[in-house]
Write a structure and sequence with these properties.
The structure is a homodimer of 137-residue chains.
Chain A: H1 3-9, H2 14-22, E1 30-31, E2 37-38, H3 41-55, H4 60-71, H5 78-110, H6 121-126
Antiparallel strand pairs in A: 1-2
The first copy, chain A, binds a DNA duplex (30 and 30 nucleotides) through helix 2.
Chain lengths: 137, 137
DNA sequence: CTTGACCCTGTAGTTGCTACAGGGTGTAGA
DNA sequence: TCTACACCCTGTAGCAACTACAGGGTCAAG
């Protein structure tokens, strides 16, 4: 199949497919007489795997490792579990960070009395020790 | 004060300070005889504002707008409120996305029976229609 | 007078794409 | 047959927000 069909089948951008080939995440396919890329079902399966992993938020380097591991069917899946767990931990860390951010933003926005900038509690909470402004250097 | 002192006072990287100057977020300071940057307290206040806004997750372009607005003390703070609220909405969207991701990852990892890759539920949940593998192209 | 900490400019790297520019190919309709 | 159009090719530059050099200069202490 041609690159456009593959891209379509996996909801991927054509440029992204070529990018994956460039960084050796996807093997270079055969070429037609007119130099068009010609993909096999193996390529389709591989790209689908990549897409699914990306949808789960895995970094490209993690996807690369997962792909390698998935080929080594006899090995224990400990390494896979480890990559996924590390990723989950990272996701949880981000959620915690963003939740703290949300609280703070909600608080700051909630204090806004919708007056002028001079009285704006949002600006105030950003401006540190405003009395310094214009002071000697 | 010199760039190192300013950086220290605001928990910022020296390179980041120069970067902010380059993108015109921070005004170019005076220079010493030996061409060292020499910052005023105004610069300190400005950079502290930037840092605080960045800590709250505002994009640099949003910070730029907030800085401009903060100088216009007579104006209504509606625009400020709007920027902050839009940012909060974005943060909430990200939290939702990550929460969904967490659920899915937890489910996938939880199904792992710690056997071989061939039986690995994590790999399986990434691999789409695995029976296609190696099929004709 | 040398060592070390600091400062300077400018450029390239990071992640994961996306968007051209400037070409070639293939097919369907007038 | 011509031509329009959708698709394909390579290569490079751009995005956010820094970070990390390379290859220099400055300054104070010992």
């Amino acid at each position: 199949m041609k690159i456009g069909e593959l891209a379509n089948a996996t909801a991927t951008n054509v440029e992204t497919v070529r990018y994956y080939e460039k960084i050796s995440l996807l093997a270079p396919p055969a070429r037609s007489a007119s130099n068009y890329r010609s993909y096999s079902n193996e390529h389709l399966a591989r790209l689908s795997f990549i897409r699914r992993a990306r949808d789960l938020g895995f970094a490209l380097e993690a996807v690369r490792e997962l792909l390698t591991l998935s080929d080594d069917t006899g090995q224990s899946c400990e390494a896979v579990d480890q990559i996924a767990s590390a990723h989950l931990a990272e996701v949880e860390r981000k959620i915690d960070d963003l939740s703290a951010l949300r609280s703070e933003l909600t608080r700051v926005i909630g204090s806004c009395r919708h007056g002028t900038i001079a009285d704006c509690k949002i600006i105030e909470s950003l401006a540190p020790t405003p009395q310094l402004k214009g002071a000697a250097q």
